[in-house]
Write a structure and sequence with these properties.
The complex is a heteropentamer of chains A (about 350), B (about 280), C (about 650), D (about 280) and E (about 140). Chain A has about 350 residues and is α+β, with helices and mostly antiparallel strands. Chain A is about 35% helix and about 20% strand. Chain A has helices at about 10-20, 95-110, 115-125, 170-180, 190-205, 215-220, 225-230, 240-245, 290-310, 320, 330-340; strands at about 1-5, 20-30, 30-35, 65-70, 75-80, 90-95, 125-130, 155-160, 165-170, 185, 250-260, 260-270. Chain A has an 8-stranded mixed β-sheet with strand order 3-2-6-7-8-9-1-10, with helices on both faces. The radius of gyration of chain A is 21 Å and the shape is globular. The model of chain A has no long low-confidence stretch (mean pLDDT about 90). Chain B has about 280 residues and is α/β, with parallel strands linked by helices. In chain B, helix 4 (about 160-175) packs across helix 6. The termini of chain B are far apart. Chain E is built from 4 helices and 4 strands. In chain E, strands 2-1-3-4 form a 4-stranded parallel β-sheet, sandwiched between helices. In chain E, helix 1 (about 15-25) crosses helix 4. The radius of gyration of chain E is 15 Å and the shape is globular. The chains are: A alpha+beta (about 350), B alpha/beta (about 280), C alpha/beta (about 650), D alpha/beta (about 280), E alpha/beta (about 140). Chains in contact: A-B, A-C, A-D, A-E, B-C, B-E, C-D, C-E.
Chain lengths: ~350, ~280, ~650, ~280, ~140
């Protein structure tokens, strides 16, 4: 099913989507474009190359409340946050980000215990992928076989033309969504042609790349290498890279209380922070920034591969672009592998 | 600029060869031309990797405190960076005799993220380093483009509530990645107060209030120490203009205590010092 | 602490009249962790105290809150109560619902709700309290007095009288100080030497006093109870162990130097005792003027000394002494009036300063007690100028306190010894001491001319024949608004008493503070005038500020008593609520080291962390607030406890 | 949907202060809902997250044995925020528990073998679980000889004193309880755990040793067992690591490919050798 | 209901707290709105305490210390003066009414001044209305 809507009617369409469920879409802010829950259709933008932060917040918000509690003298009143989330729509997701959801699924929903917060939101969400037609020097999604107009994993895939936004239902879920919105028109043959062309063009766009062959093993082998100290030297040990990353998933659980009332919440954490592995005894197995940088790289390019047979990176380039000192994870991995 | 790069390499080579320095903190190549990186040359063979261009904005003094006291370090500094050195020396985090200061008399730096020039609205932008052993070029003599506090005018003139709107919007954006504090050469505390659990000064989850607690306290900790290099704002992924707040605090310190941070090795940090004749009016 | 008892005092009707006790008790009983809440008429009474103790035991309390009067009133009482019931005294919190509530708020609702908020704050805080243990250190029973003037002499004698060993350290070759230079003392006019010399002798004779002349303290380490003091014994070139004080060396010595004791008005030998009654009666060689030292030849003294006591090879030696307490009695310096060119000191031979005049009056002085000028003539007219460099914002803002009185004394002595006209040029007469006003009144009748006005200038430029050969003192008499020119033969300046020139350095050695005039700073100007911010270091005499002899002596006795409170004990209890450093959290910024008045924190460069010498810590918490990471934990006032308390205070 | 983050309500039914320094207590917990008890099936060596709202959670090894129905026990040392709060609680208070979590002592592997248990100080808790499990009458025959070497710095720091005494009475277990330094009340053995292990000298023949204790004790004990001929496969220990979620999601206890909370905490030395050295 | 300000007072043990006691013993009446926490010295006050107090919902924060020169610990209040001054500037630049934060030197003998300051400050805060800018918005409204 291929539908279309005139760009001038985008607001109308977005309004219709808001009716269908909680809508997450790109919004332009001071520092760039980012995903937000949309209240006003007019906030949504499709004029962006990449978002600052990844759309992982749709399923895994930075702060995820689990239980609210009120401490009483003898007892504690507890109110669990319901897992029955409203249907959600993730709008304008880059193909590489779509891929990240699948990667994260492996951790959160496989291997025994399921994380219900991720799983429930994931089940309830319709993903509307969005094609791109340019490449940033920091990007390297090509290394993972993803391209700028890859429809894999999307429920609906969108291509923006000069006048229209074209929408193709990829899955049943997508079809259901598109057919329920009556502001859409059926696409014409020329639209279909344009759509296909764009997919093709997307596939032809070249990013930086890297052969993943043997990377996991090599990284594992060079665990003790002095390379890590060298490559981590400029690292500031801030957490930007992990926070903007679509596949970083480390979190903390905190009880935040005020005046006897509080919330137990999952909060994003970062393996780049000193206190991440600090134990109550004062012992810290990772005191050096080289150890922490190594952990981040290895977790993505080695350990994850061992456990889930997929690299936990989609080459979106966010960490590289956001890094205050321009550390580029691709270069780090490349040079690591070369150094073996 | 190429001259500076060449002289930087030349001096780095000389210092490493002679053993006057064990490390040269300068700039190196990044993943593309517009994105150089901080670089620590430790051997003569590393010197070739050194670059200098208008994107080498990093305040390399940030890395000084990572080396054990007594390490002989040569460091490339631009104007504000040299002021950082002075503060670090005042605070005895580095010793003057351990540092060879390679001053860079150049200031047309460009923020590679925004493509905008770094000027007195984003940094202190003195033309020349305040303290150096070797100046890699001629002193910059031209241009005097006003006070680094000029940029505050608009904020200062805002109605209180409007200013609150401004800052509350800015601080709401913070994702607590701590790039600001980690990029800051003065924020060498490890752990930071915000990481403490007893007490937990602010919730770990970002919110306007917890972010406010973090940032305001950090502004206070930097009072009289911030040297206006602007690294915090450049590091911030969500573009909070933290440097403006720092500038304001510096301005107030200057007005109240008549001292500009990082200008003289003889100064004491204003917040760990006092004068009996400080006026009570500063409290009004 | 999770088993908290809250005890609410009625204080008769003092609290109960506006704070609804039952309400408050009920409220407290509902708070988390509170297992018992009770009201009682007088918590501080014996039955009240017993009630608390019973409940502590019965309910196994691990925290107690007493809501009653100000903690400044009864905190100690209730701490004892807690301790008596086996609960650590620091697990007690006092809530002040009397001075803070019932006595200042009329409205019952308001007073009651504030009482509740305060109690809630205390409950939050008490949850986070930790037991603290008092610690003790052994005390060295010996004491040191630095400075051998009247203050030091008196303090040393007092301490020695209690049986304590005292080291009396004096930098010059004799004790006696300025007082030994004086002729008479006001207002009673008794002879200074007559009252001082016996004391000096008593020092020498006292077996408990180790007299160390020509000595200086160079370093003080350690802390109250155990100061490690390094004293430099300056080379005297005379072995005092061998010298028997025959002074034949002095007779034969061809060298001459200016007598310090006579304020340079006379000469002394190069091997000398400063004055005839000096203690000890053993000479020293003044290296500067000694002919042997200057020219390499002479050694006459060596030849005449039968005791073989002369030792030209002698060097400075150092001695380490441990004492429990130190009294600083380093005295004052007289302001150099040369820079005040308008008064012509140093320019006109007829201008004298006060100490020089003291020597003129003295029978052992350069003129053997005759008031004659440098030209040998007796002055016919004398002007005594008050407030030279004191009460003068250009020099010293403070009043030098003693000048009015000695000026009166001088006037009296001039009148007694000469027939000169004597003028007093004063701003205000400050005669506040016992018998002082009476002395002033007596002088008013001795035909002394009082001119209320500060002398503007002393000059020898004459304008009329009667001024010829005289010094002219220009002054405006502010009572008559008349400008006067007083032709006199002699001008006596009353320069300000100043802090010793090396006071700043000495203060640093002893780690005590100085005020803006460089006098040593007392701990509290009213309530702790003899202590300093360094525990165990006390002040006596003019090193703390201008002072006359009676005040100095009184202070010296007081300082001795203060010192005795330390060296009189075997052990000292240290402040329990001190700070400590969590080394895992310390970032090595050294802010604590920089701010502490008491030098309690020090920095360990190796470990890159600060450490606290808890014996020096007073628990003010300044460093804790200066610590950016929160590594400094102020016991009993931790960040955690304070933030908790704030949360409780603000909850309702 | 099952929510693994949801704490199950339990009540503290008994608190025993184990040591004379008062900072180690054993908490006996009973499930508030019988249903939960049925679902809480654990094996010695597993742990659970104890939860107090407002204070957070803390992973603690289970000290009781599944052969002791009706309750579960945790021995907790006062250290952080949660454990301090727990120490302040009284019998009758309700708290939460999440688990059982992690792998366990490899019961199947241990079956039919001689077992040497070596414990030091407070780290004896999950070993106690294992001992009680093996001593349980239906289970005892599944295992060979059981030797226990347990030591603490002082007599006052030995935990489970009554139980130790009861085990001493039995003839189907060899007990060697030791202290580094005794006091006037102490009539037992003195000496460090590694020394005692050497003295006891258990045969490595068909034997597995299970070791838990402070790092220093482990460091000196391992060579003793190597000398006795124990292979790395037959030396088993339990790791501690900063854990948060307990279910292998939050990334904190990640060591190489493994999550200590999910793939551990129990590892043989042979398995540890394969881990990246980051624990 | 009329707005009743909730004000946090922090008083140093030696001067201001004693001064407040004196206000009590002489029965000077003043508003109930200031809730005083005692510290040993005004220099113990970490500016982060002030930020936190406003987060906790204080409508105003009043700090009392010894007169300069009278500090029991000799120099504590000189440090406090600088720190609290900069704290106030930070609050103001962030957009909080600087009037909500006040530092006063109140000696132990100045019960009257304590009462006057509390009175004046309470009225000022009352006029400013509730402080909502820094106050933590709670998840559950009770």
């Amino acid at each position: 099913m291929l539908k279309k809507i005139g760009l001038e009617k985008l607001n109308e369409f977005v309004s219709a989507l808001i009716e269908k469920g909680t809508l997450f879409a790109p919004v332009k802010g001071d520092a760039g474009v980012d995903f937000q829950e949309i209240k006003n259709a007019g906030d949504v933008t499709l004029d962006f190359y990449n978002t600052l932060q990844s759309p992982k917040c749709v399923f895994f918000p930075q702060t995820d409340d689990m239980v609210r509690y009120r401490l009483k003298k003898e007892t504690t009143d507890i109110e669990e946050i319901s897992l029955d989330f409203e249907p959600r729509i993730a709008f304008g997701i880059r193909p590489c980000d779509v891929k990240s959801f699948e990667i994260m699924d492996k951790l959160f929903t496989r291997g025994g215990i399921v994380d219900p917060y991720w799983e429930s939101r994931r089940k309830n969400t319709t993903i509307m992928g969005y094609a791109f037609d340019a490449v940033d020097p920091a990007d390297f999604y090509g290394a993972f076989g993803i391209h700028a107009a890859d429809t894999t994993g999307s429920d609906v895939f969108m291509v923006k033309g000069e006048k229209n936004l074209l929408l193709k239902a990829i899955t049943e879920k997508g079809e259901k969504l598109l057919s329920s919105v009556d502001t859409l028109e059926d696409a014409l043959e020329e639209d279909r042609k344009y759509f296909e062309e764009r997919l093709k063009k997307g596939a032809e766009l070249e990013t930086r790349t890297l052969s993943l062959e043997g990377v996991a093993g090599k990284l594992r082998d060079m665990f003790g290498s002095p390379y890590w100290e060298k490559v981590a030297a400029p690292c500031l040990n801030c957490g930007v890279c992990t926070f903007v990353c679509p596949t970083c998933h480390c979190f903390d659980i905190q009880d935040e209380t005020l005046f006897g009332e509080g919330t137990r919440r999952k909060i994003w954490d970062s393996c780049m922070f000193t206190d991440f592995t600090l134990e109550a005894s004062g012992h810290n197995p990772r005191t050096q920034k080289s150890q922490r940088l190594r952990q981040r790289v290895n977790h993505k390019f080695s350990y994850y591969v061992t456990n889930f047979e997929v690299t936990s990176c989609v080459g979106c380039g966010r960490c590289t672009r956001s890094c205050p000192v321009n550390i580029d994870i691709l270069t780090v991995v490349e040079e690591a592998v070369e150094s073996v | 600029m190429k001259d500076i790069e060449n002289r930087l390499k030349q001096e780095a080579k000389r210092l490493l060869e002679s053993g006057e320095a064990e490390v040269v903190l300068a700039y190196g190549r990044g993943y593309d031309e517009k994105h150089p990186m901080p670089y620590a040359a430790k051997a003569v063979s590393d010197v070739d990797n050194i670059v200098f261009d208008e994107y080498c904005t990093f305040n390399m003094t940030r890395y000084l405190t990572e080396y054990p006291l007594g390490t002989k370090i040569a460091i490339a500094v631009k104007s504000c960076d040299s002021r950082t050195l002075i503060v670090l020396m005042q605070e005895e985090k580095v010793k003057r005799e351990d540092i060879v200061i390679l001053g860079i008399p150049y200031r047309d730096m460009i923020d590679s993220k925004t493509g905008k020039a770094i000027d007195n609205s984003t940094a202190c932008n003195l033309p020349n380093p305040v303290l150096y052993d070797i100046l890699l070029g001629d002193e910059v003599t031209e241009r005097d483009d006003g006070s680094p506090y000029d940029v505050l005018k608009e904020l200062e003139e805002m109605e209180l509530d409007v200013r609150w709107e401004f800052w509350s919007k800015e601080f709401s954006k913070c994702i607590r990645c701590y790039a600001c504090r980690k990029a800051c050469p003065m924020c060498y505390c490890d752990p930071c107060f915000i990481d403490q659990s007893q007490p937990r000064w602010a919730d770990k989850s970002p919110s306007l209030e917890s972010n406010l607690m973090f940032h305001l306290t950090r502004f206070y900790h930097l009072a009289g120490r911030c040297i206006d290099c602007g690294e915090c704002s450049r590091a911030c992924p969500v573009d909070i203009p933290l440097h403006l707040f720092h500038k304001k605090v510096s301005k107030e310190c200057e007005e109240m205590f008549d001292q500009v941070s990082g200008m003289s090795l003889d100064d004491k940090q204003v917040m760990v010092d006092f004068k009996m004749e400080d006026s009570d009016e500063i409290l009004l | 602490m999770s088993r908290i008892g809250v005890f609410v005092c009625h204080c008769g009707m003092n609290i109960a009249k506006t704070v609804r006790i039952d309400d408050v008790v009920e409220f407290a009983g509902e708070l988390p962790g509170v297992v018992v809440a009770e009201g009682y008429k007088f918590m501080c009474s014996t039955p009240g105290q017993e009630l608390i103790q019973e409940k502590i035991k019965e309910c196994n309390l691990d925290g107690v809150i007493v809501a009653a009067c100000s903690p400044l009133m009864h905190e100690k009482t209730f701490r004892k109560v807690a301790e008596g019931a086996g609960l650590n005294q620091y697990l007690l919190t006092i809530v002040n619902i009397r001075e803070q509530c019932s006595w200042v708020i009329e409205d019952e609702d308001e007073a009651t709700s504030k009482a509740k908020a305060l109690i809630n704050g205390a409950v939050y805080r008490t949850h986070l309290l930790a037991p603290l243990e008092s610690r003790f250190i052994d005390v060295n029973p010996e004491a040191m007095v630095v400075g051998g003037g009247i203050a030091g002499i008196q303090a040393a004698l007092e301490l020695a009288a209690t049986g304590k060993k005292v080291y009396l350290v004096e930098k010059s070759p004799t004790i006696g100080g300025h007082m030994a230079q004086f002729d008479k003392t006001f207002p009673t006019l008794d002879c200074s030497a007559c009252i001082l010399t016996p004391k000096m002798d008593a020092v020498l004779q006292n077996p408990n006093i180790d007299l160390m002349t020509s000595c200086e303290v160079t370093e003080v380490k350690g802390f109250v109870g155990n100061f490690d003091v390094t004293v430099k014994q300056k080379a005297r070139y005379v072995d005092h162990d061998k010298c028997n004080g025959c002074l034949s060396c002095m007779e034969k010595c061809p060298g001459r130097g200016l007598s310090e004791f006579d304020e340079g008005l006379d000469k002394r030998k190069s091997i000398y005792i400063p004055f005839p009654q000096a203690v000890p009666q053993k000479p020293v060689i003044d290296r500067e003027t000694c002919i042997y030292f200057k020219k390499g030849k002479c050694r006459v003294c060596e030849q005449v000394c039968e005791q073989d006591a002369i030792d030209f090879e002698q060097e400075d030696t150092y001695r380490d002494i441990t004492v429990g307490a130190i009294i600083a009695a380093t005295g004052y310096g007289l302001m150099d009036t040369t820079p005040l060119v308008q008064y012509g000191y140093g320019k006109y031979p007829g201008v004298y300063n006060a100490l020089e005049v003291e020597r003129l009056f003295n029978s052992t002085g350069p003129t053997e007690g005759k008031v004659v000028m440098k030209d040998g003539k007796e002055p016919e007219s004398i002007a005594i100028l008050h407030c030279i460099g004191s009460r003068d914002t250009n020099y010293h803002e403070y009043c030098s306190r003693v000048c009015c009185m000695y000026a009166l004394k001088f006037a009296h002595l001039f009148k007694e010894k000469t027939s000169a006209d004597v003028y007093q040029l004063y701003i205000d007469m400050r005669c506040f001491g016992k018998g002082y006003e009476e002395f002033y009144n007596r002088l008013l009748e001795e035909n002394v001319k009082f001119v209320r006005g500060k002398a503007a200038r002393v000059t020898d430029v004459t304008v009329s024949p009667d001024e010829e050969g005289k010094l002219i003192v220009e002054v405006e008499d502010t009572l008559s608004s008349q400008f006067m020119r007083l032709p006199v033969d002699m001008v006596v300046l009353s320069p300000a008493m100043e802090a010793q020139a090396d006071a700043g350095e000495v203060a640093r050695t002893f780690n005590i503070g100085v005020d803006k005039d460089n006098f040593f700073r007392e701990k509290h100007p009213k309530l702790d005038p003899l202590s300093t911010t360094t525990d165990g270091v006390f002040l006596a005499g003019a090193c703390q500020g201008p002072k006359d002899i009676p005040d100095t002596v009184a202070q010296a006795i007081g300082a001795a008593a203060e010192a005795l409170t330390i060296v009189g004990k075997e052990q000292l209890e240290l402040e329990a609520a001190t700070v400590y450093v969590d080394p895992y959290v310390c970032c090595g910024c050294q802010n604590c080291v920089r701010v502490c008045t008491y030098s309690a924190p020090s920095f360990d460069v190796e470990k890159n962390v600060s450490e606290i010498n808890e014996a020096l810590c007073k628990g003010c918490g300044l460093c804790a607030a200066s610590c950016p990471t929160g590594a400094i934990i102020a016991r009993h006032f931790t960040n955690d406890q304070f933030i908790g308390e704030m949360e409780g205070l603000m909850e309702f | 949907m099952h929510n693994p983050y949801r704490p199950i309500p339990v009540e503290i039914t008994k608190i025993v202060t184990e040591v004379d320094t008062n900072d180690i207590k054993t908490f006996r917990l009973s499930f508030v809902n019988k249903e939960d008890e049925k679902n809480f099936k654990y094996i010695p060596g597993q742990f659970a997250e104890l939860s107090i709202f407002g204070k957070g959670e803390s992973p603690i090894g289970i000290a009781s044995s599944p052969t002791q129905p009706g309750y579960i026990e945790f021995t907790v040392q006062k250290a952080g925020v949660l454990t301090s709060a727990l120490h302040d609680l009284e019998e009758g208070t309700q708290i939460g528990i999440r688990g059982p979590l992690g792998n366990s002592w490899p019961i199947d592997y241990l079956e039919g073998k001689n077992i040497v248990i070596v414990g030091g100080g407070f780290a004896f808790t999950t070993l106690r679980s294992l001992v009680n499990y093996m001593l349980y009458e239906d289970n005892r025959s599944r295992f060979g000889n059981i030797t226990v070497v347990y030591g603490a710095r002082t007599p006052g720091l030995l935990i489970y004193k009554n139980e130790l005494a009861a085990w001493e009475e039995r003839d189907d277990i060899d007990m060697y309880v030791t202290v580094d330094k005794g006091d006037e009340t102490w009539a037992g053995r003195e000496g460090f755990v590694p020394t005692v292990c050497k003295e006891v000298g258990p045969s490595s023949e068909n034997a597995v040793t299970v070791i838990c204790g402070p790092p220093i004790m482990i460091r000196f004990t391992l060579p003793v067992f190597f000398d006795l001929g124990f292979s790395k496969e037959n030396i088993i220990t339990s790791l501690e690591m900063k854990m948060k979620c307990g279910i292998g999601k939050c990334g904190r206890c990640n060591v190489g490919e493994k999550y200590i909370c999910k793939d551990g905490p129990v590892f043989s030395l042979a398995e540890l050798d394969k881990l990246t050295p980051e624990y | 209901m009329e707005f009743e300000p909730k004000i946090l007072g922090i008083a140093c043990n030696w001067c201001t707290y004693t001064g407040a006691d004196l206000a009590g013993t002489t029965r000077v009446q003043y508003p109930h709105n200031v809730r005083v926490a005692r510290v040993m010295c005004s220099s113990r006050v970490n500016p982060a305490f002030i930020f936190r107090a406003f987060q906790l919902g204080s409508d105003g924060v009043l700090i009392g210390g010894c007169e300069p020169g009278d500090c029991h610990y000799s120099t504590g209040n000189y440090y406090a003066r600088r720190r609290l001054a900069i704290t106030k500037k930070i609050l103001e630049f962030a957009g909080l009414e600087p009037e909500r934060f006040r530092v006063e030197w109140i000696s132990a003998s100045d019960g009257i001044k304590f009462a006057e300051v509390v009175k004046e400050f309470t009225e000022e805060i009352r006029a400013l209305g509730p402080q909502t800018k820094f106050k933590v918005k709670k998840d559950i409204e009770t």
